[in-house]
């Protein structure tokens, strides 16, 4: 797993701190409370881990950016101090492929990128071009569900924390983590290869699909048997019976309708009388409406003539009043009139009045008498129309009453006549609908036996596929005899490391043996099983720290030699914990001599990030190395957060 860190940027409240990493060795050393361990913790934080909230981190830390090379991609991890569930990941490669996603640390229910990336761990495996590894929850049951190994699980062997390096590197304080820790090492050494992982995932999918089809077949057969439809012949027989019943019912319906149409209806006479009465009622109502219109027109005309009489009376009065009046000023505006107008012209309008043709009084009287005569005629006409309307209204009321009587009679006759017919008709219609629905259901169900047969063939094919996958998995497991050789190499590498650093209690001729059940290495003095000891009874904390660190180095050494699936970086926070450089000078220098030799040779493709109190320079000055000395109170060697001086 080609993963290398390029740089780490801390955004603080008052500064932006940059750490550029060497691709080989990075050594951070210095005084207590200068932020050395926080460098490793923030790298882990960017990769989805938790962050220890030291006072400096709590007060000043805002966000972090980790730039790394993963596979063929340059990847940027961004995470803010307050974000505990997501990491912003952005990537690109030389071919121009790029992307960015806010990746959740815990898996989501739906993919966040592509079809198979559900969280940050899946995304890292995707960038590495790998399928996320999965292992059986129960190692003894091939039908047990698969559980995934996350990138966080694999990092247990790539990041040795200061607070756990001498206590629980094997995760034995947590049963779940302990089991996953063992699954990781099994996967790394080859007990569980990538091909075996892919076969196991495929077997799980095939098994789930086969079980689902078997359950579906059982449910379908149970459903069919409950209705006596266990076979295709039984369904065909029922379809034939139902179709015959539908034909029979439809024939009865046609016969019933035919008999009804040909029979004499007892209400036909009443129906015909109603039709005649309706036509007569319409005619009489139209006549009544015409009379209403004539009365309305007469009243309107009478009102107009009466109004004319009043206008004539007012005109006569005005004429008698104004006759002989001599106007000196205009009655409208009060302006003086022209005195030069001749006597034969009107002094008011200036026009020559027409010569009198008839005596006005005589003319007005004739008009008045004519109007009175017209009023009398109209009122007489209105009276005649009104009496005619009363007679017409009585005729209409009588016809309406007769129609109501016939309507009631017709309803009673129709109800009495149709009740038996409709009851029978509805019964036959209901039976027909039931049989048609039954036939439709049977036609749909008739396809089930064929579908069941197809499902059973699929089950057989899936069973054959399961057998093939199990056979391939067994063959793959037989090829895992090399895993025992890998474990033996790790045992030899661990013994070599312990002898190289001159760990007390380990001598030439001793033997290292890793327990295959819990993967704990034991030291057998001169190969004597009765005298074996391990991490748990090693004694001093410093001895435990070195034992764990050398174990991690041994695993990375063999992984590099055999190209095993382990990330190409190792972060060790304080490998000399509980060991003084002055009192244990030989062990101190021997350990770093071994580490630098591994970095220069076997682990030349592994990136080391080392954090310790004191710095030991490599003998080979050409070895690429970045070192930084951190102190909490020296301006020339500032702490991780350069301006922070504590409280």
Can I get a quick summary?
This protein is an alpha/beta fold and 647 residues long. It has helices at residues 36-46, 55-60, 120-128, 151-154, 175-189, 194-226, 232-262, 268-322, 360-445, 448-478, 481-500, 541-562, 585-600, and strands at 3-12, 16-20, 25-30, 61-70, 73-80, 86-93, 98-104, 134-136, 146-148, 159-160, 511-514, 521-524, 533-534, 569-573, 607-612, 625-630. The strands form four sheets. Strands 2-1-4-5-6-7 form a six-stranded antiparallel sheet.
Topology of helices and strands:
Blueprint: E1 3-12, E2 16-20, E3 25-30, H1 36-46, H2 55-60, E4 61-70, E5 73-80, E6 86-93, E7 98-104, H3 120-128, E8 134-136, E9 146-148, H4 151-154, E10 159-160, H5 175-189, H6 194-226, H7 232-262, H8 268-322, H9 360-445, H10 448-478, H11 481-500, E11 511-514, E12 521-524, E13 533-534, H12 541-562, E14 569-573, H13 585-600, E15 607-612, E16 625-630
CATH class of the largest domain: Alpha Beta
Span between termini? 42 Å
Care to count the β-strands? 16
The share of residues in extended strands comes to: 5-15%
User: Taking all residues together, what is the mean pLDDT?
Assistant: 79
Question: Strand sequence of the main sheet, in spatial order?
Answer: 2-1-4-5-6-7
Helix content: 40-55%
CATH superfamily of the largest domain: P-loop containing nucleotide triphosphate hydrolases
CATH topology-level fold name of the largest domain: Rossmann fold
For the largest beta-sheet, the strand count, sense and barrel status come to: 6 strands, antiparallel
Based on CA inertia axes, which overall geometry fits? Answer: elongated
Total domains, how many? 3
Question: Total helix count?
Answer: 13
Please identify the structural class as seen in this structure.
Answer: alpha/beta
């Amino acid at each position: 797993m080609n993963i290398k860190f390029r740089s780490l940027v801390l955004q603080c409240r008052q500064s932006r701190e940059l750490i550029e990493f060497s691709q080989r060795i990075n050594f951070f050393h210095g005084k207590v409370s200068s932020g050395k361990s926080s460098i490793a913790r923030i790298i882990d934080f960017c990769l989805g881990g938790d962050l220890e909230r030291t006072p400096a981190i709590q007060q000043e830390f805002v966000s972090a950016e980790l730039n790394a090379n993963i596979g063929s991609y340059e990847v940027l991890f961004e995470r803010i101090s307050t974000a505990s569930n997501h990491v912003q990941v952005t990537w690109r490669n030389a071919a121009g492929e790029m992307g960015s996603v806010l990746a959740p640390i815990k898996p989501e229910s739906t993919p966040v990128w592509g079809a198979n990336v559900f969280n940050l761990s899946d995304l890292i495996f995707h960038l590495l071009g790998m399928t996320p590894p999965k292992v059986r929850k129960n190692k003894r049951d091939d039908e047990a569900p698969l559980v995934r190994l996350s990138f966080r699980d694999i990092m247990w062997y790539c990041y040795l924390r200061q607070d756990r390096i001498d206590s629980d590197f094997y995760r034995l304080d947590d049963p779940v983590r302990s089991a996953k820790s063992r699954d990781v090492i099994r996967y790394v050494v080859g007990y569980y290869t990538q091909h075996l992982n892919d076969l196991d995932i495929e077997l799980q999918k095939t098994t789930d699909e086969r079980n689902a089809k078997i359950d579906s077949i059982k449910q379908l057969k149970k459903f069919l048997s409950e209705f006596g439809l266990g076979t295709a012949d039984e369904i065909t027989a029922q379809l034939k019976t139902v179709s015959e019943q539908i034909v029979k019912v439809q024939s009865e319906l046609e016969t019933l309708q035919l008999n009804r149409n040909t029979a004499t209806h007892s209400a036909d006479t009443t129906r015909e009388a109603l039709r005649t009465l309706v036509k007569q009622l319409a005619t009489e109502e139209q006549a009544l409406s015409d009379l209403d219109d004539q009365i309305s027109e007469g009243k309107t005309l009478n009102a107009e003539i009466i109004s004319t009489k009043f206008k004539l009376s007012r005109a006569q009065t005005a004429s008698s009043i104004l006759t002989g009046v001599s106007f000196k000023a205009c009655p409208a505006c009060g302006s003086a009139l022209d005195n030069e107008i001749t006597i034969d012209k009107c002094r008011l309008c200036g026009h020559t009045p027409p010569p009198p043709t008839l005596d006005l009084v005589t003319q007005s009287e004739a008009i008045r008498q004519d109007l009175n005569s017209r009023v009398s005629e109209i009122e007489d006409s209105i009276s005649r129309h009104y009496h005619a309307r009363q007679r017409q209204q009585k005729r209409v009321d009588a016809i309406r009453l007769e129609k109501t009587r016939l309507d009631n009679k017709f309803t009673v006759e129709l109800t009495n006549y149709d009740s038996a017919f409709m009851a029978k008709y509805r019964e036959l219609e209901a039976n027909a609908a039931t049989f048609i629905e039954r036939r439709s259901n049977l036609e749909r169900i008739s396809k089930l036996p064929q579908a069941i047969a197809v499902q059973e063939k699929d089950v057989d094919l899936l069973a054959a596929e399961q057998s093939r996958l199990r056979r391939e998995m067994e063959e793959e497991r037989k090829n895992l005899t090399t895993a025992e050789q890998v474990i033996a190499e790790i045992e030899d590498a661990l013994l070599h490391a312990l002898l190289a650093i001159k760990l007390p209690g380990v001598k030439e001729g001793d033997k290292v043996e890793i327990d295959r059940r819990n993967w704990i290495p034991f030291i057998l003095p001169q190969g004597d099983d009765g005298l074996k000891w391990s991490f748990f009874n090693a004694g001093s904390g410093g001895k435990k720290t070195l034992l764990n660190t050398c174990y991690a180095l041994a695993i990375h050494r063999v992984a590099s030699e055999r190209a095993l699936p382990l990330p190409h970086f190792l972060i060790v926070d304080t490998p000399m914990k509980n060991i003084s450089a002055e009192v244990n000078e030989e062990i101190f220098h021997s350990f770093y001599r071994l580490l630098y030799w591994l970095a220069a040779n076997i682990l030349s493709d592994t990136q080391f990030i080392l954090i310790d109190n004191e710095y030991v320079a490599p003998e080979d000055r050409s070895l690429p190395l970045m070192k930084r000395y951190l102190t909490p109170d020296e301006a020339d060697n500032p702490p991780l957060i350069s301006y922070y001086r504590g409280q």
